[in-house]
From TrEMBL, chains A, B:
InterPro entries the UniProt entry points to: HTH_HxlR (IPR002577), WH-like_DNA-bd_sf (IPR036388), WH_DNA-bd_sf (IPR036390)
Keywords in alphabetical order: DNA-binding, Transcription, Transcription regulation
GO molecular function terms listed in the Swiss-Prot or TrEMBL record: DNA binding
Coiled coil: none
Domain HTH hxlR-type: 25-126
Protein name, entry field: Transcriptional regulator
Keyword Transcription regulation: yes
Origin superkingdom: Bacteria
DNA sequence: CGGAATCCAGTTAGATACTG
DNA sequence: CAGTATCTAACTGGATTCCG
């Protein structure tokens, strides 16, 4: 996986280059923005929550196997990209809530098409895999 | 990045779990199927080619910085998933062509929504990043 | 509670050399 | 030409510890 910075830049270049019939698909942006192990799951859990908000600990419970470290890193990235807002309440013990932004919700919706495609083709793909592996 | 097999399985489970208002987005399938460094680029180049076919060497030229090794690995995976077909001509020197399948083209089209989203939001994202990094 | 720091293992990708 | 094999560097993510 390309580091986020380099890849987004590459995507930007791709996007500006495009005077073709089929505009280049900078969908490596998928990888770089959402393509790591936890990002999409975090966005999705937030989208299901009331007011699209969850505390750190609640998020950690819902995202299945995520470690504290990875959840923190994932949220930092999301915040940096403007897909999530961090609300910090300096109480004791401290409370932190993460909120899905408009743009974050949009990212999730933008994946719906692919979501359906996966659902519709998963079975076929698995058959291809079996066939390929058996032939080996 | 989760190994392809495990993740696809996880996606499958997610998909079958879903009796909710918002169906779970198994879009980690993005990562596992297309989320590595070269896969989407390869699909895209094939989609632009005549008859959606290119020789190995042509593909290598078009995909920018890809190494021979990585192109081979990427194509093997695509073939295994049924997104690409490999045509081997036992001449000397040998000739090999890779062809995008119907399903492979579908995968690319399924990413269009996300593609547009990236294009529309790239600038905003970059501004968020600058702001975040400057605040640091 | 929420997170930063450190260390470590596994995976991925690049470079290089060799081959049918 | 289209690979395969090998070695190595880099990155990712997990486990653990400590802190305000």
């Amino acid at each position: 996986m390309i580091p986020l910075d380099k890849q987004l830049h590459a995507d930007a270049l791709q996007g500006s280059e495009g005077n073709r019939l089929f505009r280049p698909i900078p969908a490596n942006g998928v990888c770089t923005l959402l393509g790591d192990k936890w990002t999409v799951q975090v966005l999705w859990r937030l989208s299901l929550a009331e007011e699209h908000r969850l505390r750190f600990s609640a998020l950690k419970k819902e995202v299945d196997g995520v470690t504290q470290r990875m959840l923190t890193l994932t949220l930092r990235n999301l915040e940096r990209n403007g897909l999530v807002v961090r609300h910090y309440f300096p109480e004791v013990p401290p409370r932190v809530e993460y909120e899905l932004t408009e743009m974050g919700g949009g990212a999730l919706r933008a994946l719906e098409g692919f979501n359906f495609w996966v659902r519709d083709n998963l079975h076929t793909i698995q058959e291809y895999r079996r066939a390929y592996d058996d032939a080996k």
